[in-house]
Amino acid sequence: MHTTRDAPAGQQQHPIGLYLKVWALLFVLSTMSYAVDYYHLQGLWRWGLILVFMLLKAGLIVAVFMHLAWERLALICAVLLPPLALVALVGLMASEADYLHLTRLLFFR
Amino acid sequence: MSSVPTHVTSPSTGTSAPVTGLRGLVADWSSDGQTFHIAWGKAMMWFFLLSDTFVFGSFLTGYMTVRMSTTVPWPNPSEVFALHVGGADVPLLLIAVMTFVLITSSGSMAMAVHCAYRGERVNAARLMFLTAAFGALFVGMQAFEWTKLIVDEGVRPWGNPMGAAQFGSSFFMITGFHGLHVTAGVIYLLVVAVRLLQGKYDHSGNHQIVEIAGLYWHFVDLVWVFIFALFYLW
Q1: Cross-chain residue pair A101–B68, CB shorter than 8 Å
Q2: Where do runs of H (alpha helix) occur along B20-165?
Q3: Which of B8, B135, B138, B214 could pair covalently with B113 via S-S, beta carbons 3.0-4.6 A apart?
Q4: ipTM of the prediction
Q5: Which long-range contacts (CB under 8 A, 24 or more apart) does B46-50 make?
Q6: pTM for the full model?
């Protein structure tokens, strides 16, 4: 079998400063999402900030720590597109939640 | 190979340097060739992580569904997971510390991958041991959290004194499965680090196994980001 390795010189070699910056940024983002709870933010601000910080952290980890930003588009698509099915599932379940709630009110009270 | 010039093969090394961007995407997926131009072990790790994404994604979706449809109020995680420190209840303190521990371990893992590619075998192994130690610390704190919840607060998978019964089942299922992943990751890292020190990967001159183990570890951190936001903070 023809095996393909990463470039022998180490394709995924990046300056250590980049890792340290991302590391610090993750700390800051975690502290900020903790602050959302600590200062008892409620309503739209709470959900919005929690989701924004979550997605920023997830993006940093996947792009820099897992090196996906430097991978070929073929792998990026293979990894990032299938989870869209999960987004669809979340949408379906969220739209069903009212109906489920009413059914529970009818039968489980 | 197709007639379209998708790869520029250098005669000296025999390796190919494929074209990049959208044209590269088309070229990679066509031409009856190898689609992913990475080592097979790395590709397989990515696919395993993709399948794991669906496992955790389905768990969290199930949690969302029961939380949205429950007829009894959901227990407030901010109060349930508060720690009593210095005469005051600090909300989510332990969870915040666990988050920082896991992020720190992800950082040291990234350093380990960096060292491994530079050929600094011993430094890479040291950093992997450090990462595994942070992972073990995380599992230890999780065990403490579970004990507190089960013994002191009376949370069970089928009910709890604070509110919706589904709180316990969601909590134990999601954090339990994540803790299992961290535990497996600690063992995986230790095995790779010991083999690295023994020089078992030297014959190939390729320390990519460290990067592959790193992918798994960063994924465990990634899942925690979602659990922290959606279960503890929401």
Answers
A1: yes
A2: 21-29, 40-69, 77-80, 93-117, 121-147
A3: B214
A4: 0.87
A5: B46/A75, B46/A78, B46/A79, B46/B215, B48/B216, B49/A79, B49/B215, B49/B216, B49/B219, B50/A78, B50/A79, B50/A82, B50/A83
A6: 0.88
Question: Hey, of B30, B69, B102, B108, which one would you mutate to test binding to chain A, going by the most A CBs within 10 A of its CB?
Answer: B69
Read off the pLDDT of residues B49-94 as tens digits, 9 standing for 90 and up: 999 999 999 999 999 999 998 888 899 888 888 887 777 778 888 8
Q: How many CA atoms lie within 13 A of B145 on its CB side?
A: 25
Q: Between chains, do A93 and B64 touch, taking CB under 8 Å as contact?
A: yes
Rounded Cα–Cα distance for residues B56 and B154 (Å) = 26
Residue type, B15: T
Using an 8 Å CB-CB cutoff, list chain B residues near A86.
53-54, 57-58, 61
**What is the 8-class DSSP label of residue B223?**
H
- Taking an 8 Å cut-off on Cβ atoms, the answer to whether B24 and A96 are in contact is no
Interchain pair B68, A100: CB under 8 A: yes
